[in-house]
Amino acid sequence: MSDQPWLVVGLGNPGPQYAGNRHNVGQMVLDELGGRSQTSFALRTTRGTRSGVAETRLGVLPGGAPGARVVLAKPVTYMNTSGGPVAALAHYFGVTADQVVAVHDDLDIPFGEVRLKRGGGEGGHNGLRDMSKALGTKDYLRVRVGIGRPPGRMDAADYVLRDFAAAERKDLGWLVDAAADAVELLVTEGLEKAQLRFHTKA
Fold first, then answer.
1. What global pTM score does this model have?
2. Which of 23, 91, 125, 199 is catalytic?
């Protein structure tokens, strides 16, 4: 396996007022990955954009080799302008689109489930749409963290910008941990093995 780094991006909105929102679950996963590798995020300005960045290794490669080299990134922009920082970091670190991983919330997946895919549509997700535009391709990897659909007639935009409900928070730590596991498996053993584990019901 090449030692070219992976760029793992946690999508969300900046600032403490958004930190617990469903829309910020991708950044929660990045915080978990940083904690696992005992790596802290430092603010980096790249091509006029800002992100919290941590360079580390995740997991253990097949055969027991040190884990995959990764750049963890949390753009310091609002969700709908995530693409600029992602493209700037990909250029700076020499990361091609096939080794960019977006970790994000997904309304179309039930709360508590994690799915992975490469490419495809953005499902109305503004962060993904801006990433696709800035990278010039949709052919990057996604770790999709299920947050479920809004109840009743609640608007989806309002739903994603609310904190997780009390009942959800009981399982939120487990969900974030599972999504972090999915990222580690993806970057160490590939998409197919990660999909086999996370898309197969026990």
1. 0.95
2. 23
